[in-house]
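Form P-L/3: holo structure prediction, ligand nicotinamide-adenine-dinucleotide.
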Amino acid sequence: MDSKNLINGEWVIPEEDTKDVYNPSNIGDKVGILHYSNSAHVKHAGEAAQLAFKDWSKRTGAQRADLLYKVSSQFEEHREELALLASTEMGKPMNEMLGEVTRAINILRFYAGEGMRECGDVIPASQKNVLQFSKRVPLGVVGVITPWNFPVAIPIWKIAPALICGNTIIWKPAEMASLTATRVTELFVEAGLPAGVLNLVIGKGSVIGNTLLEEVKLEAVSFTGSTETGQWIASACAKRNIKFQTEMGGKNAAVILADANLSNTIPAIISGAFSSAGQKCTATSRIIVEETIYEDVKRELNRAVSKLKVGEATDPAIYLGPVASRDQYEIVTKYADIAKRGNIIAEGICISDLNQGNFITPLVVDGFEIDHPLIQEEIFGPIAVLIRVKSFEEAIQVCNNTIYGLTASIFTSNLQKGLRFLDEADAGMVRVNLETAGVEYQAPFGGSKMSSSHTREQGTAALQFYTQVKTCAVNFE
Ligand code: NAD
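OUTPUT (holo model):
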């Protein structure tokens, strides 16, 4: 398969600069060709989106919803195929990818419904015979920049609300998810996407991103990715005074108190830390345990993690697939080498040839000071560190001792401590007896501190980002 751009309803395959794409589960297996776009493609996409905005923004919510419902049906029909493509492009296990496509279908339907809901307020006027109200109006052209780790769901949770609100889009997906992005866009076209409403431009972040942010007329940018890139995007948008939303890194903690029910807690820790091979912004990477049950937790984690199998993403016997790329493999391997200088509590097993793909065995370690890079830096791989604390108060302090604030969980049967944690844990998404990942699409999603620009995605929160408020008054005397 070849990646291709969609600009003004036309498919374009840039030929000057290409790269072969290999399956991270089998690095000798070529799955397609990535075609890098240049600045001219981005500018052309900007003009197309600008032109299409005139008509798309005038359509009714019901008309825009019609497109989203049709896209959701396309996704449903091609669910397996889309999941398999993404799984072979970036290595997410097939069962997780199927779940991700289902989430995307639900998101499309959720936002389609929003086309028929209220979008403002009537506000009493102090003057008589004046009708005063506010309404939400579309912004214009929105830049959508997405990462590779949720190659279907993250783009859809930006594109669907942006479209239902009447905006047009230039989408720049991560290089490592370009084939999946091409197929996702094809499904929009097959559902009847009008020309220019969604434009796809594939290529390098530095080339496309810089042109998009500095030379294209935009009204907003929604970005998910690393904190470093997010900060650059935030400053570029601030200079132009355009709306931005940056969802960035995490270093999420799960606290296990002495009264936790371990038979429910351990599976939630395993899933939080090791599904998607730890490559979730919401992954559990610090496990903070009260000292009286520390040895029990170590024993239970050892039992569970030593059974975890890593291997080819399409093999139903595996729990973890490979990490997404060779670069990612090298970064995570360096952290794994450091982690192994501590105490290894548990390590999983690789059931494929270790050299065949970007396989990294899941690892739980302890023996590190709380300011150690392993406990402070986002690893984005299957490594979790155990930290022993004396009390609930110390657990909260350690949990908050990070520059990030995306998600945090506590496992306890004490209601009072659970509720205090929800108040005192400094993260955008806080949970009791639930894993750190898995926040539902109809609820607001986002972080505090360096994890987010403090806006929220998903749920109805996204509608606030993709619109602006107009205050209207009519004297009908
Ligand atoms: P990344 O920052 O490298 O890339 C993200 C996107 O930005 C890609 O499309 C990339 O091409 C683009 N980009 C790179 N340089 C750019 C530039 N100068 N201008 C504009 N765009 C540019 O991140 P990644 O490696 O794809 O994703 C992993 C990161 O994403 C992790 O840090 C993870 O925590 C984070 N993430 C956060 C969330 C969240 O909701 N908070 C969700 C998923 C992933």
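COMMENT: Residues 145-149, 172-175, 205-206, 209-210, 224-226, 229, 232-233, 247-250, 281, 378, 380, 406, 447, 451 surround nicotinamide-adenine-dinucleotide (CB under 6 Å).
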